[in-house]
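Progress against Task 2.4 (sequence-to-structure conversion) is shown through the following example record, which the project officer requested during the mid-term review.
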Amino acid sequence: MTEEKLLGERIKKNTVLSCLIIFGLLILVHGLEAIVVRTDETVLGENCINKIFGIIIVFIVLDLLKWKPIDIGFTKEKIRRSIGIGLAMGLASFIIAYSIEIIVLRSYGYTVSFGIFTTGFSLTGESEIHKGIGFILMCIFFNIINVVMEEGTFRGLFDKILLTDHSMKFALLFQALLFGVWHIVTPLHNLIDGDINFASFLGLGIGYIILAGMMGIKWGLLYRMTGSLYAGMADHFFNNCIATNLLHVITEGGVDDLMIVRVVIAQLLSFAAVFMIWKKCGYKKTCDSSLI
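Structure tokens generated for the chain above:
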């Protein structure tokens, strides 16, 4: 037996440990880039190195396991339909979320407007607004890379590995937990920079784990329901790129003061919708196409 084949067999026999080792490597690179390299504070405006690294790791592990991208959800069928489902869900939930945000802001006497732009780092240490088409296209490109890596890793690779010897429920919840922990790098970054204290770090860290974990469950269910990663990728992209990075709510008091409220509302709504449809399916591995 070759060394590669032996390593592949070890991954299949120690699925949880294998996922933890892969995750540990990925989050180490993620943390180093965010806290030490700080690619998001360059002209790129995004921590993209860890995403590209993650995609490479996914393909290396796939090769060790003798799997293909189609085996972890990158199917060749109904791509446009699945993407349409994800974008429609993101659009519907964020229309409601933006509306609630605007109503709340106006109730406090603010004049509300929208702005389409990205924010970048300047030498003064303050955020700088970029409205150029180049920055917007760059934002879209890096967010596509982001969803390919995160969905391919958590909902795709980890889920498939765990299903080798664990139940579907365990695989769903475990990948969601890892996805939640993945996002603790953001408050850790703020803690190290002195922007928040340790108590705030704990609160934000727990909040990130819960919110991102819930999103991980939702996108995992979408994978089960549609048979591919594309619906989850599209909704993930809409949340990150459109509703967080590009379409901003502006008032006299600042920009996106209630962004976290907007995101939480949208994610709760879409999670509830996906879960109800999943429940209607009777918790089957896949759902009848007429239900989605």
